[in-house]
Amino acid sequence: MLGSYPVDVMLLATDLGVARSFYGDTLGLEVLVEDEQFLTFGCGGDSRLVVTKSTTGPREEATKASWRVDDLTGEVAELRARGVQIQDLPELGTVDGVADIGFALAAWFIDPHHNWIGLLQLKDPGVRPHGAATGAA
After folding, report:
1. 33-82 per-position pLDDT tens digit
2. 100-109 burial, b for 16+ CB within 10 Å, e for fewer?
3. 78-87 burial, b if ≥16 CB within 10 A, otherwise e?
4. At CB < 8 A and 24+ separation, what contacts does 131-134 make?
5. Whole-prediction pTM value?
6. 104-110, strands of its sheet edge to edge
7. pLDDT recorded at residue 86
8. How far apart are the first and last CA of the chain?
9. Average pLDDT over the chain, rounded to an integer
10. Rounded to whole angstroms, how far apart are CA atoms 127 and 92?
C-alpha cells in the first residue's frame, strides 16, 4: 500500500533561482535534479522536496511541508544562524519560536515564495501524526 512508499513534498515558486539559493545554500539541501520547470532536493532517508515553477505561487497560508527532527531547539538555532526568520505565533503560544502542540514541539518559517515550512519534534517518535502539519498559519 501507499504507506510503505516514500512521498515527495511539492512546493510552488515563482523564481527557481531564489528557491535554489534558499533551499540549497541557506538550508543546505543537496540539489538532486535541476530543470527549467523544477528543482528536486534530497532530504533525510529517501524523502525529497520538489519545488515547481509557478506563475502565481501559493495562495493560502498553511504548512506545505514539515521536517521531523530530533532536536527542535538546535535546528531552530541553526536556522536562525543561517538568517532564517522563525515565526512567532502567539495564538499557538510560541516561546522563542517554539510551540507545544500536544503530540509534538513545533516551529515554522516562511520561504521566499511564502510557503509555510514546519519543523516537528515528536514527543513519542513511534507515533505518526495524522495530518499534523496542516494549517499552522
Report:
1. 999 999 999 999 889 999 999 888 777 888 999 998 999 999 999 999 99
2. ebeebbbbbb
3. ebeeeebebb
4. 132/66, 132/101, 132/103, 132/104, 133/63, 133/65, 133/66, 134/62, 134/63
5. 0.79
6. 63-68, 116-122, 104-110, 99-100
7. 98
8. 31
9. 88
10. 21
